[in-house]
């Protein structure tokens, strides 16, 4: 007769691997779909690496605004590498399996880089507020040491917020027959729904992370721009107002590019369960792939110093 301890061990199950669906219903055209995905990953990595090289090699860009832009570019590189291996493995080679622990690791980094990006966008809004409201003290307020502290705080915040998530999932009992993930990467909401146990704690903690990071960040960004607008309206010259607001355009576009897909995806996951699975998949891809692609384009188009520095790097490398 089995002891109670043996019974517990046998009744507890975690799958050795999950099966990633990718984009449901489009399996027959994965070869064609891989072309735009490969192109977007190439643009994202090339553009963000160019920004990092441009800022590093151009002394005139050694300013707080461009240091924060470098943080954003580095975060976008990390976010791209978080999804690239499994997405291209599914599209190119139809390799759909991902080990349980590997899935948790990917999920941790994927969500951590998302939190980092949200935090960096908040830091950039603070940078714009200081630059516009107190330009004479801008360099003395945002010193290199202050920027380093902000960067370390951003990384620590993301790490501490997401660190419990994999362990909360590892304690769950999973169903042997439920191993299908609706994306080509591991999402927290997707993984926890494969469990055959009470996931209330996971749901509540996931909601806490979303509200305490992206929720607070978005509110503080709105507050920053309210204060910026109040300051700009106090300027006497209309030309000065336009000039001040023009320095914020790139950041505002980056905020929209990041937060609109985040909000859309959160709403769909909570209230759009009746929608086709392809809608969930496409929104997730937009959220994870599009911002790293668009951010370098936005800043290279709207910021002349960045554009010139990037072109200089290309000429030095002999790419143009």
From TrEMBL:
PROSITE patterns: G_PROTEIN_RECEP_F1_1 (PS00237), G_PROTEIN_RECEP_F1_2 (PS50262). One of its GO terms (molecular function) is G protein-coupled receptor activity. It holds the Pfam family 7tm_4. GO terms for biological process: cellular response to lipid. Coiled coil: none annotated. The chain crosses the membrane at residues 7-26, 32-55, 67-93, 105-126, 138-160, 218-236, 248-272, 278-301. It is a multi-pass membrane protein. One of its GO terms (cellular component) is plasma membrane. It is found in: Cell membrane; Membrane. Residues 47-299 form the G-protein coupled receptors family 1 profile domain. Keywords: Cell membrane, G-protein coupled receptor, Membrane, Olfaction, Receptor, Sensory transduction, Transducer, Transmembrane, Transmembrane helix. InterPro entries: GPCR_Rhodpsn, GPCR_Rhodpsn_7TM, Olfact_rcpt, OR51/52/56-like. Belongs to the G-protein coupled receptor 1 family. This is Olfactory receptor. It comes from Carlito syrichta (Philippine tarsier).
């Amino acid at each position: 007769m089995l002891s109670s301890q043996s019974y517990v061990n046998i009744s507890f199950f975690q799958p050795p691997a999950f099966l990633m669906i990718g984009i449901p219903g489009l399996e027959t055209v994965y070869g064609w779909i891989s072309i735009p995905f490969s192109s977007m990953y190439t643009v994202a990595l090339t553009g963000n690496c160019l920004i990092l090289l441009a800022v590093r090699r151009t002394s005139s860009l050694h300013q707080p605004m461009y240091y924060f832009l470098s943080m954003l570019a580095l975060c976008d590189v990390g976010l791209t590498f978080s999804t690239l291996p499994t997405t291209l493995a599914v599209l190119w080679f139809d390799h759909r399996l991902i080990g349980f622990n590997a899935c948790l690791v990917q999920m941790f980094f994927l969500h951590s880089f998302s939190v980092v990006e949200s935090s960096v966008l908040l830091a950039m809004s603070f940078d714009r507020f200081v630059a516009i409201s107190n330009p004479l003290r801008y360099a003395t307020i945002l010193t290199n040491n202050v920027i380093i502290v902000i960067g370390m705080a951003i990384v620590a915040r993301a790490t501490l917020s997401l660190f419990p998530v994999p362990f909360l999932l590892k304690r769950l009992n999973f169903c042997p027959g439920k191993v299908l993930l609706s994306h080509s990467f591991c999402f927290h909401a997707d993984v926890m729904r494969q469990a055959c146990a009470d996931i209330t704690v996971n749901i509540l903690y996931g909601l806490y992370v979303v509200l305490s990071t992206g929720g607070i960040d978005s509110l503080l960004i709105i507050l920053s721009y309210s204060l910026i607008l109040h300051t700009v309206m106090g300027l006497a010259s209309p030309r000065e107002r336009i000039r001040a607001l023009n320095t914020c355009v790139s950041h505002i576009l980056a905020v929209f590019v990041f937060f609109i897909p985040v909000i859309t995806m959160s709403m769909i996951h909570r209230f759009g369960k009746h929608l086709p699975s392809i809608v969930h998949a496409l929104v997730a891809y937009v959220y994870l792939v599009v911002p790293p692609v668009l951010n370098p384009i936005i800043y290279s188009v709207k910021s002349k110093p960045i554009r010139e520095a990037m072109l200089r790097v290309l000429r030095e490398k002999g790419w143009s």
